[in-house]
Amino acid sequence: MSFEQLVKGSFSQLSSGQKKVATFLLDNLEKVVFYTAVQIGREAEVSETTVIRFAYALGFKGFSEMQAAIQQYVLENSTSRFIEDSPHQDEESNIFAKVLERDIANLRQTHHQLNYQDVWKAVDWLMQADQVLIVGYRASYAAAHWFHFMLSMIRQHVSIIPLSSEIEERIISLTEKSVVVVISFPRYSKETIQITEACKRMGARIVAATDRTLSPVSRLSDISFITDINNVSGHYSNASVINLLNLLMAGIEEKYSDQTKDRIKKVEVLYSQWEVFEE
Questions:
Q1: In which element (H, E) is residue 88 found?
Q2: Cis peptide before 212 (omega within 30 of 0)
Q3: SS3 of 233, please?
Q4: CA–CA distance, 279 with 271 (Å, rounded to integer)
Q5: Could you tell me the pTM of the whole model?
Q6: C-alpha distances in Å from residue 196, one per residue of 67, 130, 252
Q7: Sheet holding 158-160, edge to edge
Q8: For 186-200, what is each residue's pLDDT tens digit?
Q9: CA nearest to 6, candidates 49, 66, 75, 51
């Protein structure tokens, strides 16, 4: 059993302090191979004693034995990566690297063609709007749902049009001060286009994330952000779409941090009171 597997298998039985040590170690394995217990404790924000008890909890005789196991694990994984990166590697086994490389190429292309003035304009629109409506169906729904969740954390009156109902009720409340974020990639959903047209008739501003300047929703939008999706046989990667939307979140955090802090604090208090997350 590898060190990573050992930690994962024991995690649920650890104390809260030991869980901090476990999380810090797995996130920084190559960094901590020669760390002392004191150094690990300082960066994990626990005591040296907690680090030593963590080693015992994993079944090691002491911290030194655990450190040796970490060093062995890092060495084995470094060797494995070296072999995988070899120019003689079989092409079929390199498929995952190719997928990542395509996503990285997409992000670079998105960066080169992005108009950052449009990003800042969209940031202002999103924060100054009376309401924000998010539209995205089928394969675009995951990105729409993520953006809805993130934006709802920092401002009120954010909604997403559900897959089956309440469409008319959401659209009818839009005004000229509203913003609609539309996420649409091939194959373009007719429903998404129809909703975008209806929102535009209500006078709302349209911000689109799509793949072409002349895509159906881009032609209807006030601002379009373009990114490729590596569409192959109906499958595409959401990576570049999420990163594009994340730029808007980063811009809001940078420009409107004073306005968003109080709401985030209130949300976190509710999360804590209701024990929403496993700490």
A1: none
A2: no
A3: coil
A4: 11
A5: 0.69
A6: 57, 18, 24
A7: 158-160, 132-135, 179-184, 205-210, 223-226
A8: 888 899 999 999 999
A9: 66
